[in-house]
Amino acid sequence: MALLEANGVVKQFGGLIAVNNVVFSIEKGMIASLIGPNGAGKTTFFNIITGFYQPTSGDIIFDGQSLVGLSTDRITARGVSRTFQNIRLFANMSALENVLVGEHCHLRSGVVGAILHTPGTMREEAQAEARAHELLDFVGLRNRADELAKNLPYGDQRRLEIARALATEPKLLLLDEPSAGMNPIETEDLTQFIRRLRDELDLTILLIEHHMRVVMNISDRVSVMDLGELIAEGAPEEIQQNQRVIEAYLGTGGDEMLGAE
To answer: What's the pTM value of the predicted model, to 2 decimals?
Structure first.
């Protein structure tokens, strides 16, 4: 049974159709990749799933319920979280504080409790901080909790953004270009880390990624967009040999881009 389904999703900006009648699904426990040339509509599709954009038509079903019309915070509370192609951390907050922001959607204490420091509020804050430390430990930032986000190395900032996303307690994690800007060693570490997210935290993962070695090594299924349309889906080895996909990338040179032998 699909955890997420897109049924005939269209997104139009004036005369531009950025996403055109996309039908897509991802099953629970899967690592799936969404690839395609620049401008193919991949991030727009992510933005529709997460509520940043509302579809012009079509529906997004998550865990049996429609997400269309819901605000981003309500979608997050239902179990969909994401990272961004351009890292969006709170630069002047510590790593710990950034993760605590992610936990906010599940905290129950209100303003009155925070002002009065009621026992329930104090207990909940202590539990949230303990959980935040656990997540920092999980992503390899145990000793960086008090450092400002802007002072962290680039790879650590990527991991911190993932920790913040994990703090929302997602069922589905969307990663937008997670290996962007990473060197080969960092990229390989990231690939292993994404597997850990699925295997140890029981997450379903959908990623946009241009690094084809990551895509082909980690994905259970690869979906390909071009000019707003879904043009191919299949196992990594099928996508590597798909002529339409090759042409969408670099014409006759696309096989190298896709990592084909």
So the answer is: 0.86
